[in-house]
Amino acid sequence: MTATTTAPSAAPEHPRPAVRPPSNRLRAWATRAPLLPALIFMIVVTQLPFVATLVISFFDWNALYPDARSFTGFANYGDVLSDPALRKSVWTTILLTVAVVLVSLVLGLALALLLDRRFKGRGVVRTLLIAPFLVVPVAAALLWKHVLYNPEYGLLNGLLHYVGGPQPDWISNTPLLAVEASLVWQWTPFMMLILLAGLQSRDQQQIEAARVDGAGDWQIFVHLTLPHLRRYLELGALLGSIYIVQNFDAVFTITSGGLGTANLPYTVYQSFYQAHENGLASAAGVLVVIGSIIIATFALRVVSSLFREEVGRA
Amino acid sequence: MSATAVRPVVTDAKPPVRTRRRAGAGLGLVAWLVGIVFFLPIAWMALTSFHSESDAATNPPSFAASLTLDGYREFFGAGGGASPWPALVNSAVASIASTLFVLVLALPAAYALSIRPVKKWTDVLFFFLSTKMLPVVAGLLPIYLFAKNTDMLDNIWLLVILYTSMNLPIAVWMMQSFLAEVPVAIVEAARVDGAKLPTILVRVVAPIALPGIAATSLICFIFSWNELLFARVLTGVVAETAPVFLTGFITSQGLFLAKVCAASLVISLPVLAAGFAAQDKLVQGLSLGAVK
Q1: In chain A, pLDDT over 70 holds for what percent of residues?
Q2: Which residues of chain B have a CB within 8 Å of the CB of A258?
Q3: Nearest-by-Cβ selection for A114 from B27, B108, B138
């Protein structure tokens, strides 16, 4: 509506209107003013610390020897990528994220398809299914660690007892899988909710028409449902990745990063909180950001497509 | 996605043949089964929390053991352990205060992005979103050093500020999409009739946007309540939050299983209640308002 305001400016947060009559400029600022508190706050609290992290990552800096601080260029990055333990945590992060996102996405899709049908008590089942996502993450991790996985009195082995199965020590035998299972349990409901929303926004008349034309359930699923769900699948994968790449609670609680389950966030936490290696921790942190940017690039494309229909508004 | 989307328009999708209906009933049963399997750990946790410690730690599991409130008594400090109340109060303060700050900052921003959109408003929205993709660990160390040098460590208000920044982008996105539902024509009409901005906001915009604002607040509350990493690094004794309090149970090796279960349940309760109450809005918020 204020079409007269600006010539295209570099960034929306630093708009530089061309020379205009003051009344126009004033009005332009009046429309922008409500944005400024939120923008300035976000820049100060999130962007400044990241810049500081970036700077620290180029220093050899152990907090226990503050006087021995020196500029080392990319040495910290070299250390992170060549240290077997740190390199493993990069790999663990990838493995954890990909496995959890894929499995919970597939399970979530299956559940969404089940819940899309009408049956008795559908609302109750949906509520039951959402519950894992609502348990506080630390509490959920504790639940898996002590109540389910415990080799002596955990529920898993308790149930195996009835069928005379083996009584494995889940966390020691398959630590990463143990963490992944608990995260899949937490994230499947989330994927299901997003995909259910997608399923229920399908064009029912189109499906009915296809059915009249003799298409079977499977054909309808492959040719109509899946293409329609694509955006929702991408959105689920994107949001799941953003959160799971950063997972700290489950790794910290279930294995304390032991047994090869330390992911990058945990490693960053450990290298500055316990080892006081500020430079190294920062370099690892920057690597997490680079990983996230790769996801984000993909992400923005997806969100842009979700967003396209609305863009005409301004 | 609104409530109407979830209880959908399946009226004309009637399964015509009897076999399809029978298959549908079978699949409904499968859905029930999976739902129960997913809920089982939580149900088991709830049951265990009411068992005595000796009944809680048995193999095979004791389904029929007598019920007791000992786990809860233990958790609330009856056995001489640390009381969880300060941590619960800290969590409440951090969650509620940061949610209020988020609302104060996000509402004007969302207004500028939807009702009277500034130029390039999508770029601004993307900037907000992009801050969400900056992992928490990337800024943790400078924030820690800053807090240490300014004596802000172990201060709940530092968490309030950080939780505000954590939730603000989500809130701006959600509210933008809620406010976008307010018809511009109504706002313009009110303006033409001579209504001033405050009147327009209170009389026209607020009634339409209120459910969305409530949903946004709920999600901000949940995320703040759940947060661990910041709280773990930046608080100690005084400002400890409920999730940090819970981490005290990590190494107890389940020796106090009933107590662990009671603790997990009590601390999850606000989120469980809030989440059940607003299931639909939860998805919309978590997917940044993109799924409607």
Answers
A1: 86
A2: none
A3: B27
d(CA A60, CA A74): 10
> What confidence category does residue A312 fall into, taking pLDDT thresholds of 50, 70 and 90?
very low
CA dihedral (B155, A246, A125, B51) in degrees, to 10, reads -50
For residues B8 and A295, what is the distance between their CA atoms, to the nearest angstrom? Answer: 33
d(CA A135, CA A82) in angstroms, rounded, equals: 38
Please answer yes or no on whether B134 and A207 come within 8 Å at the CB atom: no
Average pLDDT of the segment spanning B101-125: 85
Whether A314 has a pLDDT exceeding 50, the answer reads: no
DSSP A252-296: IIIITTTTTT--HHHHHHHHHHTS-BHHHHHHHHHHHHHHHHHHH
Residue B102 contacts by C-beta under 8 Å, 6 or more apart in sequence?
Answer: B164, B167, B168, B171, B216, B217, B220
- Which tokens in the block code for residue A98? 């990909």
Name the pLDDT band for A299 (thresholds 50, 70, 90): low
The predicted-structure confidence for A226-252, as pLDDT tens digits, reads as follows 888 888 888 888 888 888 888 888 899
Mean pLDDT in residue range B257-267: 90
CATH number attached to the domain at A91-138+171-279+288-313: 1.10.3720.10
Closest-CA distance, A90 to chain B, in angstroms, reads 14
Please name the member of B9, B13, B168 whose beta carbon is closest to the beta carbon of A41: B168
| Residues B16, A212 contacting (CB under 8 angstroms) | no
Compare all CA atoms of chain A with the CA of B58 and give the residue at the minimum distance.
Answer: A153
Mutation test of the interface with chain A: which of B47, B119, B280, choosing the one with the most A Cβ atoms within 10 A? B119
Specify whether the CB–CB gap between A148 and B41 falls below 8 A.
yes
Domains of chain A by residue range: 91-138+171-279+288-313
pLDDT at position B5 is: 41
ipTM of the complex: 0.83
Question: Measured between CA atoms, how close is B137 to chain A, in angstroms?
Answer: 6
Q: Is B62 left (phi over 0), alpha (psi -120 to 50) or beta?
A: beta
Q: Smallest Cβ distance to B141: which of A125, A167, A285?
A: A285
Left if phi > 0, otherwise alpha if psi is -120 to 50, otherwise beta: which for B80? left
What's the rounded Cα separation, in Å, for the pair B128 and B124? 6
List the single residue in B25, B133, B141 with the smallest CB-CB distance to A56: B141
Q: What is the pLDDT of residue A4?
A: 40
The nearest CA of chain A is from the CA of B57 a distance in Å of 5
Please give the residue of chain A at the shortest CA–CA distance from B272: A134
Q: B117: distance to nearest CA of chain A, Å?
A: 6
Please say whether the dihedral angle defined by the alpha carbons of residues A219, A225, A228 and A234, taken in this order, is positive or negative: negative
How far away is chain B from the Cα of A248, in angstroms, using its nearest Cα? 7
Omega of the bond leading into B60 within 30 degrees of 0 (cis): yes
| Least confident range of A175-184, B100-109, B270-279 | B270-279
- Average pLDDT for B89-113: 93
Tell which of B11, B55, B59 to mutate to test the A interface (max A CBs under 10 Å).
Answer: B59
- b (16+ CB within 10 A) / e for A211-248: beeebeeeebeeebbeebbebbbbbbbbbbbbbbbbbb
In angstroms, the Cα distances linking A130 to A194, A229, A283, B42, B156 are: 12, 20, 37, 11, 30
